Amino acid sequence: MAEPGDRKSIRAPSVFDALIPLLTLALLIGGSLALFGMAALDGPIQSALIVCCMVAALIALKNGHSWASIQKAGQGALASITSAIFILLAVGALIGCWNLSGTIPTLVYYGIQALSPTWYYVASATICGVIAMAIGSSWTTAGTIGVGLVGIATMLEVSAPITAGAVISGAYLGDKLSPLSETTILSAQMVKVDVYTHIRNQAWTSVPAFLFAAVIFTLLGLGRVDIEGQTELQKVVELDSLNGIYRITALNLLPLLLLVFMSIRKYPASLSLLTSAMFAGLVGAFLQPEVYSAFVGQNPLGIGGAVKAVWLAMANGFSMESGIADVDRLLSRGGMSSMLNTLWLIMGAVTFGALLDEFGLIKRLINPLIYRAKTIGGLFLTVFASAFGLNVVAGDQYIALVLPTRIFRAEFAKRGLAPQNLSRLAADCGTVTSPLVPWNSCGAFMAAVLGVPTLLYLPFCLFNMASPALSVLYGYIGFKLVKLDAPSAACTSSKN
User: Fold this and answer.
1) Maximum CA pair distance of the chain?
2) pTM of the entire structure?
């Protein structure tokens, strides 16, 4: 009798074998969202992914693969995200220190000064885009600034669904172009390209898509009358109180400038992030001593108190109780510990994807589609269908991002396409479309925090629809595709 793992005993997976893990995934994630709501992201979805990994492993065993080969596949998956793990921990440290030192509050304060009811929709999208790019989180941007913007829209009698669409459009633009974004980092890591190479390539779809959205938002806002004027608007913007909590000055933006400088000079991402975080902690100790003292409960602050504040912000994030809900929600976050649930989620998604890929389960379903995709445009459309389909079936943006990058990586190389084409396409089609699905974790989150049902704001998520459309269109017309024989030419166009 052949032993498990003997090549003669290994069987190709059936269609039923391939469907079981995906159906299990859809059932468990859907069930976790139904039972726990948004709290499902605090552990239930991660647990569901681990169970799905076990289901995939059992199917691999049934088909004759050894447990050693299953372990090896899982180890390879985790090894592939080692760099991403350190980058995400550094991002957590940086967010905590930027909140403590006043860098993020200063960005927010300057951003809200640009609000004008006449240009409300386009201003909302632009402000959210800038803030999301600075902090690297579409969820945090929507859950803080976005909440305030939708609330103000109701007071000013402008459309809440259009405002919600503008908020989400801007938040996802910033998320896609920020080196601090976990999904941006993961997109690059999954295809093994530098994160800044990915961002430069991503800009070719993200920027035109946002400009298209901005034009439409401008047209939707034209003709509106500023009934109360800018002064009245500022009264209802609670975030304006940041000026009373922090010393708002352009000096608070020095850590951001340092990060930009190190990024341009192509220093390693984790090194750049940690350096900026510690520099922010140093600058903030001089500019925001009252904030530091309140954070650690030590007055006078002293050198030891300043070190303690920075250390705590890096490890566990910054927290504040100002009595103003929007301010507290914006600033009470960050820290390396805040990334642990995300890392758990990514580990589960990557391992699940690796098992489906390694043992031919997902290929059993996707290969017929790839075979029919004779042109590069057809291949791009297939990636879109796979990524968006996973957003619908699995209900999670990480799965919709991870699996397509693993599945199509070899096919892109076979057709002479550089990996940054795939990372851009997967981000545009997987991450950006996730808030368009009501039962997806992103769609559920946006509807919950903004108070606008997904199906109402969906028609106005103009960036989220234009970005994947452009990405697929580029595949058909051969615009801004990077060939493997010119990997450094990240912005070189190539015809099919």
Assistant:
1) 84
2) 0.73
* Token pair 């447990």 in the structure block, residue: 67
d(CA 13, CA 364): 7
Is the peptide bond between 4 and the residue preceding it cis, with omega within 30 degrees of 0?
no
The predicted-structure confidence for 416-463, as pLDDT tens digits, reads as follows 999 999 999 999 999 999 999 887 778 878 887 788 888 899 999 999
Write out the residue range of the structural domain in which residue 252 sits.
83-338
Q: Is residue 288 part of a domain?
A: yes
Q: How many domains does the chain have?
A: 1
In a domain, 18, yes or no: no
Please check whether residue 187 lies inside any domain of the structure. Answer: yes
Q: Which of 148, 139, 161 is nearest to 111 (CA)?
A: 148
Q: Distance between CA 206 and CA 464 in Å, rounded?
A: 9
Instruction: Tell me the Ramachandran region of residue 249: left when phi exceeds 0, alpha when psi lies from -120 to 50, beta otherwise.
Output: beta
Looking from the CA of 383 toward its CB, the CA atoms found within 13 Å total 35
SS (H, E, C) 314-372: HHHCECCCCCCHHHHHHHCECCHHHHHHHHHHHHHHHHHHHHHHHCCHHHHHHHHHHHH
Q: What is the pLDDT of residues 352-392, one digit of tens each?
A: 878 887 898 877 888 788 888 889 999 999 999 999 988 88
Q: Does any domain span residue 196?
A: yes
- Report how far apart, in Å, the C-alpha atoms of 306 and of each of 80, 233, 309, 372, 383 are: 37, 37, 5, 62, 49
Residue written as tokens 């024989």?
485
